[in-house]
Amino acid sequence: MGNRVIAISAHEALTGLGRLGEAPPLPQDITVGRRVIRAEIEGLEQLAQTLDGSFGLALDICAAVRGRLIVTGMGKSGHIARKIAATLASTGTPALFVHPAEASHGDLGMISFNDAILALSNSGESAELTDIVAYSRRFKIPLVAITGGTESILAEAADVVLLLPRAGEACSMGLAPTTSTTMMMALGDALAIALLERKGFSSADFQRFHPGGKLGRRLLRVGDIMHSGEAVPLISPTAPMSEAILAMTAKSFGCVGVCGTGGELVGVITDGDLRRHMDDGLLSRTVTEIMHPNPKTIASGNLAVEALGLMNRFAITALFVVDDEMRPIGFLHMHDCLRAGIA
Description:
Elements: H1 2-18, H2 27-50, H3 53-64, E1 69-73, H4 76-90, E2 95-97, H5 100-103, E3 116-121, H6 130-138, E4 143-147, H7 153-157, E5 160-163, H8 179-199, H9 203-209, H10 213-218, H11 222-225, E6 234-235, H12 241-251, E7 255-259, E8 265-270, H13 271-276, H14 287-290, E9 292-293, E10 297-298, H15 304-314, E11 318-322, E12 328-333, H16 334-339
Parallel strand pairs: 1-2, 1-3, 3-4, 4-5, 6-7, 10-11
Antiparallel strand pairs: 7-8, 8-9, 11-12
Helix pairs in contact: 2-8, 3-8, 4-8
């Protein structure tokens, strides 16, 4: 019975907090939140101002790697290192997070002589990094350090040091890693994006590494989801409308493209055109008499979301996909976009 009363009280408390105006945030809470955010912004501003030629040297090492970029760190730095490795891998730089403690117990075998190491430690004195640093020196594996310890063991061992400025932690005790980890995250992002731009990494490359989820769907190309070959509804301009209607019915797209003598798309007939010209003589008329000239088209390399935008803008439900010579190579219906999750 007592548990039930507590549950009801908790529910009522949550319900009350959820109603706008009944439980306003305490002013001191907002003050703390703003102070933390401003402290981290100040740290990032210092980082941007102090970034120097070492960043370019670190990029040279990362760009020259024939294997993978091994990212490592302990504690909070390790969590940031995992994220940096994931960002690098998704933007064209093969990367892997290796836990420094596990490295000392066999995972050093994950690091090849063609790799480079990016080690994160605010103090630069993390004991768990000792073995992985020693391994890099023994086998001449390039080592880049992100650290705030200018004279630390890590800084002295590294080939290049990306130094974190002496910005105070946002924690009121100055102990919890907050500003320092934010700066590490920003440096990792800066490295990943700079490498991306050096390599000319394109949106097509990005889509290859992000096939799932909303991002992957947004980056789908028309060529990825279009109908092609025999599925494309096409007819000659000299054909009678009876043949056009049969072609439209067979392909079930509600339209048919009209190709000229050179194979170029010169027009389109939709079921709307049929309704507008419905009379006793429709079947005996030629396709040229009924077709709508200059149809809307798109290239296979365009994003599918662009195709959907074009359909919405002109209130149409389909597009013919053409090559540089305006020859139809595919067909895209709005339902194809919807099935692919593009909306």
